[in-house]
């Protein structure tokens, strides 16, 4: 399969992922009600915190998808942003919006863990 055809396949997958995220982000995540006691309020607050975390992650993922679509349009899709090596097909099948090859991704994660 040609690189352009592979990129187009990933483009379709990325567009489908973006559509799913947009649908999730458009749904209200928190029901507003006044809980009767402290335990209900604590439970509601915990649920709200989890929902905020999920929405935040979905927004970040949406940006990664949009960036990957821009890389497809620019002709730089599947090229590691750090070492400029080709990102392997297995990695792109698992993470179609990947910016880095596996080796560089590990380095990025290790650097993040040191902070």
Please supply descriptive tags for the structure shown above:
single chain; 115 residues; mainly alpha; 2 domains; 4 helices
Uncertain stretches of 5 or more adjacent residues: none
The total of helices stands at 4
Mean pLDDT level? 83
Question: What structural category arises from helix and sheet content?
Answer: mainly alpha
- First and last CA, distance: 41 Å
Number of strands: 0
What is the count of distinct domains? Answer: 2
The main β sheet shows up as: none
Gross morphology is elongated
Helix content: 55-70%
Query: What share of the residues does DSSP label as strand, in percent?
Result: under 5%
Order of helices and strands: HHHH
Q: Radius of gyration from the CA trace?
A: 19 Å
Q: Could you walk me through the main structural features you see in this protein, from its secondary elements to its overall organization?
A:
The protein contains four helices and no strands. By secondary structure, the chain is mainly alpha-helical. It is elongated, with a radius of gyration of 19 Å. It is 70% helix and 0% strand. The longest helix is centred in the middle third of the chain and has 37 residues, at 38-74.
Outline of this structure?
70% of the residues lie in helices and 0% in strands. It has 115 residues and is an all-alpha fold.
């Amino acid at each position: 399969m040609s690189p352009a055809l592979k990129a187009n396949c990933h483009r379709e997958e990325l567009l489908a992922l973006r559509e799913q995220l947009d649908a999730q982000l458009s749904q209200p995540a928190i029901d507003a009600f006044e809980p009767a006691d402290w335990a209900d309020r604590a439970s509601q607050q915990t649920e709200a915190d989890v929902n905020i975390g999920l929405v935040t992650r979905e927004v970040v993922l949406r940006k990664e998808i949009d960036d990957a679509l821009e890389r497809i349009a620019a002709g730089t899709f599947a090229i590691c942003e750090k070492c400029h090596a080709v990102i392997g097909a297995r990695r792109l099948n698992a993470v179609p919006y990947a910016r880095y090859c596996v080796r560089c991704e590990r380095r990025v994660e290790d650097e993040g863990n040191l902070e």
